[in-house]
Amino acid sequence: MATGTSSSGGCWPATSGCRGLSTTVRGGEPSLQARRGMVGKGPVWPEIIKENGLIESELDDITTWWFVDALINANKEQLENM
Length: 82
Known about the structure:
single chain; 5 helices; 38% helix; two-stranded antiparallel sheet
């Protein structure tokens, strides 16, 4: 996964691209639209849980996509690991 910024637009286009999401350009800066990109992705979550030995959960119970969008579309680029 790409980290940091680059002349090609930063880490979000690379990060979203490898997950099948698209980015949009707003004011010259790329922005991820997770709220829109994750529509219909819930059915694959049980497969991800099984393949990775995760605790069973509903995708919508572990995140709120509007919050992800707010973090990602902030005026500064950030990439964190919890």
